[in-house]
Design brief:
The complex is a heterodimer. By secondary structure, chain A is mainly alpha-helical. Chain A contains 26 helices and 9 strands. Chain A has 2 domains: 278 residues, MetI-like fold (Orthogonal Bundle); 217 residues, MetI-like fold (Orthogonal Bundle). Chain B is elongated and about 75 Å long. Classes of the chains: A mainly alpha, B alpha+beta.
Amino acid sequence: MIGLGIRTETFSEDPILFLHRVLREVRWRFDILNWFQLSIILILFSLFLLIPILSIIVNAFLYGGSFSLKWFETILSDPLYMPWGSLDLTLYEWIEVRRPDGSVELILYIDGFNLGVIPNSFLIALTTMTLSSIIGFTLAYLFARHRFPLSEPLRILMLTPLLSTPFVGAIGIKKMISPEGFINTVFTEIIPILPFKIEITGLAAVVMVQTLLFYPIVFLNVYTALLNIDPSQEEQAENLGASGFQLFRTITLPLAMPGLEAGALLVFILSIEDLGTPLVFRGTNADYLMTVQIFRKIFAPTGEISGEATALAFILLMISLGVFFAIRKYISLRRYAMLSKGGVWRRRLNEVDPLYLPGIYLALATFLFISLLPHIGVTLMAFAGEWPVGSILPSYFTMRNFNTLFLDPDVSRNIFNSVTYAVTATIIITLVGVSSAYLVSRIRVPGIDLLDALVTMPIAVPGIIVASGYFLTFLDTPLNPIQTGAPLLIAAYAIRKFPFGVRTFFAGLEQVDKALEEAAVNVGASRTKVFFTITIPLILMNILAGSMLAFIYSMSEVSTSIVIGDANHPDAPMTWKMYDIMFKGSGGTFQAAAMGFILMTLQFLMIVGSNVVLRRRATALISI
Amino acid sequence: MVEIKTVDLTKRFGNVVALNRVNLHIRQGEFFTLLGPSGCGKTTFLRSIAGFELVDEGRIYFDDEDVTYIPPHKRDTGMVFQNYALWPHMTVYENIAYGLKVRKYPKNEIDKKVRWALKLVHLEGFERRRPHQLSGGQQQRVALARALVIHPRVLLLDEPLSNLDAKLRVEMRGEIRRLQKELGITTLYVTHDQEEALAISDRIAVMNQGEVMQVGRPDEIYLRPSNEFVADFIGRGTFLEGVVLESNGEIRVELENGLGVVVGVPSRGDTVFRPGDRVLVAIRPESFTFRGSDEFNSFTVKVEQISFIGSVKRVEAYAEGRMFIVDIPIEENVAVGDTIKIYVPRSKTIVIKLSR
């Protein structure tokens, strides 16, 4: 009868009054602790992210000391970068190899086509994203909605590729898929299904390796999104007569879409900024990727970077930042999966018909084996004595690679460096990250979302760009990377892996009812006191999880490690050493694999540790 | 114990006006309730008093002290949250002792006060329990004890009973009332449940769209709603529109739809009624009687629905397309389809001036 509701008025406030109101609100909301937290974040990110990025942008537009678009003209007209020349559009070719006994062997050689550096990077990222999405979504739907014996352990096993980095994984997988490697040998000789051998290399191999390493990101995001759908929404649709594929297409898929999009775009970013994988396949057309090209144009011993490299870096940065801000805007617009609440949630789980079980197990086992290839490969190589051409396994196993490895006194030093840097970076990420998550989640003043954008942005800033920026910014400062590697490597790890920590802390804070903190303020505790006595204890689990994640990812960081490590070898971390061993002739692939194995083991211990602490809460740790 | 005064309190969230020039005066030791539908601004008002919201304009006074810009932790209010907000990582004892520890009381003093508070809410022996080991009602008591143990100047309660089941709700509301009187503490209570508000309060402010519609004792609010919103929001009733014919203490109103003429009393003393003014006539269901002798104030209605609601039968009846809600004694013999004649005393015929 009489209208209830909220009165809304549109009034255009005087901008000065508005600013005044915002400032008053900020003064009111912030206490000393918050100002301190904010200053630390801003100093850290200005110094080690914004200024370095700015220096790249400035250099990209400078020629002969004044503003110029010359570098961009150079790049955009060069057939190396753009598809202007004669294009290599052969996806695969047949190669005849004459064996020692005189017979001729046919190999299907797949390396993808080369359209120029910029289109390549874009296409590779797009392909990896698509493949990862298909695999990740299928697995997520299977595990989120179906129950069958062993489904839980299998689900966790499917996440193992997260353990690895493209660099370590690629070393292993390269060996396994080489013409004389495990796969080809098994399928042409032991179980002769294939009439010929297949060699996957170059850009095609980059896509393959990245897909195997990144699909868990889509998997996790979609899985979480599916679990977050209120079952009554699907039940309502069924109640109205929808079922089967129609129900999936009209209700389930749209509701899981934000998860899929977030995961897919994250994969796109990780793929386009990946330097480790293409480096492993160097000497093929995998060299024609933006990250590799920038990498080659940095002359580490002197810290020189060509203008061309900065312009290329600028283009790469625009692509990945563009995608990043698109995700943020788009996903936040579509957060409707959480719309309904209340009531009792009973997860929708279908029992799988036992008839299908053998098929599911076979498919999963095959897939699991393929996705574990990198780890299996690295492990086998690490302990391989000799690995004769054409044999599936090494002829004998030995610790020799490790012994040889540690004959080089630098190795233990590099490992020590890695651990020290990662631990320091983790401490920084934890302290500053908790502060920043707290500010964004709790002190809701206008503009605080900018802070959130700033601290999650590093996920979209390619490591090679961070490294180049550091050279440009710090060359003649006390932090000169040529004099000392440690400070900048720690800074690089802390900044680059910050989003993983801060997102985990933030997720924890969002689960804590704000009233718990208000209740403490109400009985007389200052915000600082509340932060330490109420907030921190309540999100302790998330803090631990975020820190472990930050540590694991810091240990396996590749791009900045090899660029900055190359400028100062004694200060270099173990990922640089692996690169050095593989390509600079200071050892062999087996030693690099042994080092990869050590890295994997360290990471594995951390994951097991975090799983023990967190049980199953590790589902949504990787999202934007 | 303080009195609370607000002057022109205004708060906007973006384009939504949550509080629009709210002036309220809550007296010392009074149990004062803010009542209104969700989104009416009552919780925003409470949170502004606690200091969790910074108001855009206006002032808040505790006695003569201007607390508008005092941060929440220095306001000395004790708040009970809707979901109790007990800290899961602390025991009952630690929850209650927190505010005292923050105030740096000596250990034995803390102990004494916590025991006093536990006794106050009848929870002796629960010190070592964790919040999740308590029932809803017990959690509620801990939240109360935690707010009261610091001897706050004001007790603030934000829909504290909405998470309890019906029976416990009535029990706890008596308990809260008892504690409040016992301690004599100025109390601000927020609820959307009008029955609860009427039962528990000394005075009530009815709010809608960020504005205070009426302030008064529960009986005043119920019997003399000062505008159409309050009349509709509090209790049930029959609402008939009409035009003033004459006003001299009593008001004579010509009803629409040829329902005749009624004589009634103004909803508030300060309203001036002139012939020709459009008004709303509000009659509570229990105000109707079966017998009467007045030449006005009677209606012949057709019964369409009867529901048994305990002490009386509530009848929905129609005349000239208008709905009448009438309570009749159980022993009266009335059936659906009957035509009955009903009366309403002049003193219970409330005339409300329509703003339009």
